[in-house]
């Protein structure tokens, strides 16, 4: 079986294949996007939108990719002439979806390490409009980088050097300014990257006129990306896909159906980013906070409030939870009845998003282990769920019952039974599980000496933990009835088992 190349497009060698093949004319489009990073998230989300817009005649531009090293996928991109297969699989509105697309948005891939001069030469292209990145959260940090190096060490350093080259190539004309959209998963990513680049320009003593151009004519947009794009699928899945499409592809990219790229911008940004018209998943609005809030509270928050319950119940993955009568009911009810009403966004959009999240949780093609979601469980609980709890209590003057059940399961999950070389483990059905949490030692100590057969001891433990503002940033015990409800559930779980309590408390 041959590997994917442009010959498949030219010779139409895929009769009967389910794959969507791009027209050859799309390979001749000019480069309009500079992309820092070759990872699957960029291939599965922004590059998906660029490709879709090109096929609809809306954007008419391709992507030149900058890779930080010489190793890995850069050579594969060259061998496959920038083409890769995007397999979209999942659940949408309750129905299973499977789609295969040959993405032709990428024109070429350059190595920053060995082809930095070619990267800087891209700055002379007047059609280049947009810069995107996903260099991980660590990538957006201020260092003592020298922007004159070939290449600079950090991503902000490389970006500054490129923008300086752009400024010089067009003598600071207003039209040469660019739109920069970082896709790193940090709040206000555009604002933070802008601050770092400006500070770095000062550190490198770059001309005041350049800094003025950077400040006035280059736009840094905050953005939010949301799509599950796992790493390369296992061998069996890959082989099954290759048999289906009729060729092999070392850059095979698999994603869920749901997609969101929320970009903060005005009408001028919309005009420049014409690709947004191709798909409802691209949102350009002056304030993207509501999209961030609903993702944090509904998707991430529901994961967090459910994970301990599902794991101690005896399940291993999110998919297994959604296939269990009681856990699926718990997840649906806690999200729709207790989280949605407490999220400060438009309720209709929150409920629509909640339905989409449930479809995502049911996706049979993505295996999401529960134990991996428990990483830094306490910090996630604080960041994703505490404000939801406070909002609900303020709005309704009562305890969110299912939320309290999930919180009780979290406390039980954090009950370590063993410490060895600073590593802590709990126990489920006689078998150990890891507690990978910066507060594992805190809970190990807090649980010491607690008589789990005495309700008064459990109540004392819960009151102590919920009142600790160093954990939650607020006193959760001050929420009338919350500590007592959590104590009741926790005591019941210790006496009767998690499964029995869940099945008794989660109603049809």
UniProtKB/TrEMBL annotation:
Gene3D superfamilies the record matches: N-(1-d-carboxylethyl)-l-norvaline Dehydrogenase, domain 2, NAD(P)-binding Rossmann-like Domain
Annotated ranges, domain Mannitol dehydrogenase C-terminal: 287-489
Residue span, Mannitol dehydrogenase N-terminal domain: 32-269
Xref: SUPFAM superfamilies: 6-phosphogluconate dehydrogenase C-terminal domain-like, NAD(P)-binding Rossmann-fold domains
Keywords attached to this entry: NAD, Oxidoreductase
InterPro entries the UniProt entry points to: 6-PGluconate_DH-like_C_sf, 6PGD_dom2, Mannitol_DH, Mannitol_DH_C, Mannitol_DH_N, NAD(P)-bd_dom_sf
Name the UniProt record assigns to this protein: Tagaturonate reductase
């Amino acid at each position: 079986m041959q590997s994917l190349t442009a010959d498949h497009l030219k010779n139409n060698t895929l009769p009967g294949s389910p794959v969507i093949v791009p027209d050859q004319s799309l390979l001749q489009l000019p480069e309009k996007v500079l992309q820092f990073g070759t990872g699957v998230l960029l291939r599965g989300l922004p590059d998906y939108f660029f490709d879709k817009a090109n096929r609809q005649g809306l954007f008419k531009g391709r992507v030149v990719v900058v890779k930080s090293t010489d190793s890995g996928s850069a050579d594969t991109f060259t061998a496959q002439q920038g083409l890769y297969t995007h397999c979209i699989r999942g659940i949408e509105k309750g129905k299973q979806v499977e789609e295969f697309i040959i993405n032709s948005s990428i024109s070429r891939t350059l190595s920053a390490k060995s082809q930095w001069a070619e990267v800087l030469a891209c700055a002379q292209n007047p059609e280049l409009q947009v810069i995107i990145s996903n260099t991980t959260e660590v990538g957006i940090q201020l260092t003592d980088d020298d922007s004159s190096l070939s290449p600079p060490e950090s991503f902000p350093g490389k970006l500054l050097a490129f923008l300086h080259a752009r400024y010089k190539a067009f003598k600071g004309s207003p039209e040469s300014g660019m739109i920069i959209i970082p896709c790193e998963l940090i709040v206000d990513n555009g604002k933070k990257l802008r601050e770092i680049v400006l500070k770095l320009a000062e550190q490198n003593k770059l001309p005041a006129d350049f800094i003025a151009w950077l400040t006035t004519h280059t736009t840094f947009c905050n953005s939010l990306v949301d799509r599950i794009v796992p790493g390369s699928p296992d061998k069996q899945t890959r082989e099954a896909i290759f048999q289906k499409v009729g060729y092999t592809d070392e850059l095979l990219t698999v994603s869920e159906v749901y997609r969101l790229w929320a970009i903060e911008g005005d009408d001028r940004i919309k005009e420049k980013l014409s690709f947004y018209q191709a798909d409802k998943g691209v949102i350009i609005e002056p304030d993207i906070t509501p999209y961030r809030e609903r993702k944090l509270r509904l998707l991430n928050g529901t994961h967090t409030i459910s994970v301990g319950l599902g794991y101690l119940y005896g399940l291993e993955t999110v998919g297994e939870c959604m296939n269990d009568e009681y856990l699926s009911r718990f997840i649906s009810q806690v999200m729709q009845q207790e989280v949605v009403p407490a999220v400060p966004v438009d309720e209709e959009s929150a409920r629509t998003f909640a339905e989409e999240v449930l479809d995502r949780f049911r996706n049979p093609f993505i295996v999401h282990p529960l134990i991996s979601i428990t990483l830094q469980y306490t910090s996630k609980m604080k960041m994703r769920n505490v404000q939801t709890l406070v909002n609900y209590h303020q709005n309704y003057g009562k305890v969110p019952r299912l939320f309290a059940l999930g919180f009780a399961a979290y406390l039980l999950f954090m009950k370590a039974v063993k410490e060895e070389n600073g590593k802590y483990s709990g126990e489920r059905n006689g078998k150990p599980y890891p507690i990978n949490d910066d507060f594992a030692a805190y809970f190990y100590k807090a649980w010491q000496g607690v008589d789990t057969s005495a309700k008064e001891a459990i109540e004392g433990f819960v009151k102590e933990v919920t009142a600790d503002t160093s954990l939650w940033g607020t006193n959760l015990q001050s929420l009338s009835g919350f500590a007592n409800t959590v104590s009741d559930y926790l005591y019941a779980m210790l006496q009767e088992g998690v499964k029995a309590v869940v099945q008794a408390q989660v109603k049809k």
